[in-house]
Amino acid sequence: SVCPGSMFMATGSLSVFLTFPQDYYGKTLKKTSDLKSNACLAPAQPIPAFVLKALKKIHPEVTSKYYGCGLVVPECLEGCKLLDLGSGSGRDCYMLSQLVGEKGHVTGIDMTEDQLEVARKYVDHHTREFGYEKPNVDFVQGYIDALKEAGLEENSFDIIISNCVVNLSPDKRKVLSDAYRVLKDGGELYFSDVYSNRKLSDEIKNHKVLWGECLGGALWWGDLVRLAQEVGFSPPRLVTANVITVDNMELEAILGDYQFVSATYRLFKVPKISNKASLVIYNGNIAGFGESLEFDAQYTFKVDEVVEVDGEVASILSHSRFAEEFTFQPPGVPAGCGVKKPKVCANTRTIAPNVS
Known about the structure:
Number of strands: 13
Family: Belongs to the methyltransferase superfamily. Arsenite methyltransferase family.
Number of helices: 14
Strand content: 15-25%
Radius of gyration: 20 Å
Domain Methyltransferase: 78-231
Pfam families: Methyltransf_31
GO biological process, one term: toxin metabolic process
Structural class: alpha/beta
Shape: globular
Protein name: Arsenite methyltransferase
Distance between the termini: 30 Å
């Protein structure tokens, strides 16, 4: 199925809708510089030194065939089983395979055979480069809204990442529900994508180049919040958001006054939240985050600092892989002197990126 209101539903040309991204990313684009807008190259936060070190070990051909927007690196990865939706040439998979370690595992899924060919070509190369006895990465061909059909089992992954590919799917609800199905209890979908300030017109949705450039399939951020909770996830937590500028006059004329952001959200498969606030202390034991952990746009946890979190975040921290990284104050302990209460702006509270 496809998005309601799409021309492709009316005309029955779903095959064109599905195969265009394959052609665009497999045949039209040969290198990153072939992209016609900067939507898929939107700047992210400063890259941590340990991530830069991991990226330097990746084969140049894998890096040059990478078309993502930003960099998706969740914290606390050691030993985790991770799935990359729309893994492309495998850059993020090979970077993350170093961070999960030899006891962890990374699976990449992509629909584009040309991209998978590049990724699979260098499995043995990176196994040797990382000093592993056997590969901890594998790649499957399939669609991100058909994970069961691709052979991915339910409750099998600790973390799912995605980098600028959910917008390429015609059925975003199915992407989210499939992700929820294959995640273990306590698992997380941590992903970067492009969002619009309002629902897109059919003209923009059905424009092939805008679709391939990550704009034509962009969700209105409010629909993400609704869809995520409908399939069972906790309310999305906004991590970062960067305004996108489209430096292409032809595309700008078509887009008019629509605005877009590249935003990273985190969604958790945890029990329904309570309304009780909780006091937590970050222990500082996550690799690469020894002094502080910037969890999202609202909460940054410094080592040994007592922070009052809302019931939603308390549930996430206590039911996910972060549970062992925090000390939780017993219920009923009053928030005395020295307890930090984060400032909350309206946009953060409503889970919205700052786009008007």
